[in-house]
Amino acid sequence: MKFEAIAVEKIPLIHKGDDLPSIICERIELQDRDIIVIASTIVAKTEGEIFRLEDIIPEEQALEIAARTGKDARFIQAVLARSREVFVEAPFMLVTTLAGHTCVNAGVDESNIEHGFLLYPPENSDASASKLGNELERISGKKLSVIVTDTNGRAFKIGQTGVAIGIFKIKPIKRWIGEKDLFGKTLEITEEAIADELAGAANLLMGEGAGGIPVVIIRGLDYYFEGNTSIKESYRPEDMDVLKKGLRCLRNKR
Amino acid sequence: MKFEAIAVEKIPLIHKGDDLPSIICERIELQDRDIIVIASTIVAKTEGEIFRLEDIIPEEQALEIAARTGKDARFIQAVLARSREVFVEAPFMLVTTLAGHTCVNAGVDESNIEHGFLLYPPENSDASASKLGNELERISGKKLSVIVTDTNGRAFKIGQTGVAIGIFKIKPIKRWIGEKDLFGKTLEITEEAIADELAGAANLLMGEGAGGIPVVIIRGLDYYFEGNTSIKESYRPEDMDVLKKGLRCLRNKR
């Protein structure tokens, strides 16, 4: 049993409206059950999610946070506009986005694009993954899954890993229910976060900075799933999220 | 650019004192810069970290937590004995272990071994990784890295992923410092948690339950590092850990 992770090389700099599925299929021959892992930065670029910092008008909450933290109020406004809750303001803004993803700066990125511009994540990464996936399947004639990824920090440790923020034809969580362990004892429900493990694996080839490998194919696994799926299935329900409760406890003390 | 993840098949049930490096080398021919990912469960078994539940005498704190939560006081005692701080008692015990790893139940496991026994994680997973790695290098004559892994849950999402709990001849965090992004702008320090991404990648083949693939080789990357390393380098310093501060805030309100 094995799998391969293959970088799709020489993807050009991406611009709004570029046909990413064609660009990918011109550079690699896809196979059934391939998982196409695509960095959200290029998905966002094709969707035109680039905005000028100087066009952003900070509103009251952004100005207040800027006053407290010394950060650029326009950047904060961009983050707030995409967030439904702010847990931490400094030294970084930890939020839950409108899409339900908890991460720093709502995924708003000021690196990798010309200075003075911000790159927003795709507005709906599941929808982006589906659009790309359907077109990739049409062009190639193969059964394909797609994972749109970002890099995020994590709890209790430093450093970032690749994470899934949108998916197509793959379940985000694989459930091992009622299977027996090596001694015949029935396992309680075990949930393996395969979409995030795949995103992390791909990130080993994607790298950061000018490495510039925004598409990686993972080949040899059997996760193709034709039903409806959403990355939201992996978000912890609010009432079961003790870490959020802790952050609110801190916030209420301020 | 690509890498492979290869399951080492037909590893037998492991017992105390088994020669894991020989068992591995008999089943796969290793190459320079291979990363050997080994599930902590089998490392713990070779090290004899199996204890009878009935031999554990719960002390006062364990009895108090058991009274509050209804859990088995002996199991709680086993967790407490390996923990330096308890953040959450129920519905699961979230602790920081003596080794500095923040996880559920201090990694104490009651699945996959005969009923009535607990399997503890290796006492020092970096030391275990080094011992295994040195022997693997000696037998094979190759330059090898080792990662000892467990499966852990994560913040804000459901499900578990493979994570690194001990390492040998690989840095846990790859730093991309001062490299320029695609537009020539110098990146701030970016830290990629490669040991955890590798652990997650390997876990895609390891599975849970009776799947029973406790060793996976990752081949094709260039992370071999001969200096001293420790997984502790990846743990967030306490004074910079806002999530722990939040959990303490909740705990102080009880």
UniProtKB/TrEMBL annotation, chains A, B:
> According to its UniProt entry, what is the function of this protein?
Catalyzes the GTP-dependent successive addition of two or more gamma-linked L-glutamates to the L-lactyl phosphodiester of 7,8-didemethyl-8-hydroxy-5-deazariboflavin (F420-0) to form coenzyme F420-0-glutamyl-glutamate (F420-2) or polyglutamated F420 derivatives.
Which enzyme class?
ligase
Q: How does it assemble?
A: Homodimer.
Q: Which SUPFAM superfamilies match?
A: CofE-like
Keywords, in A-Z order: GTP-binding, Ligase, Magnesium, Manganese, Metal-binding, Nucleotide-binding, Potassium
EC numbers: 6.3.2.31, 6.3.2.34
Q: Sorted alphabetically, which InterPro entries does this protein's record hold?
A: F420-0_g-glutamyl_ligase, F420-0_gamma-glut_ligase-dom, F420_ligase_CofE_arc
Q: Which of this chain's residues are annotated to bind GTP?
A: 11-14, 40-41, 45, 112, 206-213
Q: Per its UniProt record, what Pfam families does this chain match?
A: F420_ligase (PF01996)
Q: What binding details are noted for the cofactor? A: Monovalent cation. The ion could be potassium.
Which residues take part in binding a divalent metal cation 1? D109, D150
Give GO MF terms, alphabetically: coenzyme F420-0:L-glutamate ligase activity; coenzyme F420-1:gamma-L-glutamate ligase activity; GTP binding; metal ion binding
What is its pathway? Answer: Cofactor biosynthesis; coenzyme F420 biosynthesis
Q: Which reaction does it catalyse?
A: oxidized coenzyme F420-1 + GTP + L-glutamate = oxidized coenzyme F420-2 + GDP + phosphate + H(+); oxidized coenzyme F420-0 + GTP + L-glutamate = oxidized coenzyme F420-1 + GDP + phosphate + H(+)
Coiled-coil positions = none
Indicate the segments forming the Coenzyme F420:L-glutamate ligase-like domain, all copies.
10-220
State the species of origin. Answer: Methanosarcina horonobensis HB-1 = JCM 15518
Instruction: Spell out the family assignment given in the record's similarity comment.
Output: Belongs to the CofE family.
Q: Which residues does the annotation say bind a divalent metal cation 2?
A: T151, E208
The gene for this chain is cofE
Question: Can you name this protein?
Answer: Coenzyme F420:L-glutamate ligase
User: Has the keyword Translocase been applied to this entry?
Assistant: no
Q: Which GO terms describe its biological process?
A: F420-0 metabolic process
Please tell me whether the keyword GTP-binding is annotated for this protein.
Answer: yes
* Reported cofactor(s): K(+); Mg(2+); Mn(2+)
